[in-house]
Amino acid sequence: MLLLPNTPFTLKSSGDQGQAPLDRIVTILRRNAKLLAVCAVLVPAVALVYSLTQAKEYTASATLLFRDPGLDEKLFGTALFNQDEDPQRAAATNLQLVSLRQVSERTARELESTGLTADAIESKVTVEPVGESDLIAVDAVDGDPKRAADLANAFAANYIAFRRDADRAKVSEAQALVQQELDALTEVERAGTDGQQLGQNARELEILASLQTGNAELVQPAQAPSDPSAPQTLRNVILGLLLGLMLGAALTLLREQLDRRLKDSTEAAAVFGLPVLATIPESRTISHMGRGESVATSGVESDAFRMLRTNLRYFNVDRTVKSIVVTSAAPQDGKTTVSWNLALAEARAGKRVLYIEADLRRPSLGAQLGLTTKSGLSFVLAGMVDVQTALQSVEGIDLLLAGPLPPNPAELIESDRMSGLVRWGEEHYDRVIIDTPPAAVVSDAIPLVTSVSGVVIVVRIQRSRRDAADHLREQLTNLGAPVLGLVVNGATARANYYYGPAGVERVFQDAPGRERRRDGAGPGAKKGQQRRKQQNGQQQKSKQQGERKQPQGKPSPSQHKQPQDKQPQGQGGSSSQRVGGQQSKRPS
């Protein structure tokens, strides 16, 4: 049970009373658990289906070693080819050479029988260095493992041949120069020292040309792989899971920013900076009640309203809370349902209750209870009828319906007669409950919030909007309203009640004329129906006789004698009116 202090709460901004960052994150994740679960399952499932539908591919790898045997230095004592002294630059040069278009074209000519073109070979073959070594891996991908190995080996062999031919061509140029010099010598000069040296160089160049390897050799030929390299199903599913979680988190943040509705009681309490007096579960029992029906005396719904009544009772420890305004930030939040069932809970506990329907714009309680009236609050505030004439007795509650809709509802609610009615109700009843229009929409409820003992705010989960709640909080803060707390309506039913849900006192129908079952059936339900029939019969009889009959011992305006006075004409002031042979003060 929630224990409340003896003074009204001061409304705080949403930042003054919020959750810790970690708690808020946990709350948001829990609230969007379904969205996260869908993303975490759907994206990996798509990745799995995609992987299973892809054709298998195999990767074969051949390894080339780049090194200079230094044959030119051994033969001539100097390097015939320019050497790069920077190892990294030399490795990058070799990598670019292997990736040249000419190598792919040579390979395509060799594998002409396979139908592979140079473009296809370039798309199938990748060349990558192996760490920081002088090794380069030639990887070939194909749907056939043997064809992949043949392609890798052919590409590596054609690169070696390409480099060897290029080096031999350079040696051949040197041979041609030496031969030209020899041809220019006479027989005597050839026999001399210079001629013999040129002859020696020519023979050495011929030997060097035959020994050229392109400074590359195939150190590890490619073998046909036994396992496919793609698709990588496990990797794709794991990446899909991570992507799904990221997508779910992004959608959750976007949803939280765009959806301005209050999601749960914790968020509602944080927005207003107020305690939650009661949580009313989302219930088919309440939403499917027919005309003249009320919540049963037992069950989840009645327990929630009894909890609300009990929590409000703690405000009476050191001060009196006899009149309560029930309002909300927007229409359809359930303030009429909450206020009426709170009145029922008070009446069933033996309290004297006056219920005032102060919504003079869109009243709905009369239609819900199956009651009609030719007068009501609007006539009372206009000075056209006395309070006792407009009052009706419903299940132990003195009910003052709104009556005919007036053209000036705000002025009537703000009048002295309304203030006098509230004061009169506080004197003669244990609890005065006033149902008002949404305070954040129209201004009718504003004059009342400062003239009553307390204000109860009703919010509806997944309907009340945060901006409307902020506006209502600012309004009540500026007015210094004695706000008691929140009633959270439409919450998800929890399994924390001792008893299962009991229905309304009525017979549900599967089809017209066919009785399905009695929800909340039993002696209590039958007695409740009989009691309502008797009360409705008494009301009709009293209307026909032109007077209301009050049960003995029930407080009513007619039981309190006041000095006789004439009823004034117009809107202002207060007066007395004789009802049933007695004089009772009627509030202005």
Largest sheet: 8 strands, mixed
Number of strands: 16
- Could you give the order of strands across the largest sheet? 5-12-11-6-10-7-9-8
**Helix amount:** 40-55%
The value of Rg in angstroms is 47 Å
What distance separates the N and C termini? 40 Å
Summarize model confidence as the mean pLDDT.
75
Please identify which CATH superfamily of the largest domain we are dealing with: P-loop containing nucleotide triphosphate hydrolases
Note the beta-strand portion. 15-25%
Describe the global form.
rod-shaped
Could you write a compact summary of the structure shown?
The chain is α/β, with parallel strands linked by helices and 588 residues long. It has helices at residues 21-31, 33-53, 71-76, 87-98, 101-110, 118-124, 145-184, 187-191, 193-210, 233-258, 265-272, 284-287, 300-313, 335-348, 365-369, 377-381, 387-390, 409-413, 416-428, 446-449, 466-479, 523-545; strands at residues 58-66, 125-129, 135-142, 216-220, 276-281, 323-328, 353-357, 392-394, 397-400, 431-435, 454-460, 483-491, 506-511, 514-519, 575-579, 582-586. 36% of the residues are buried.
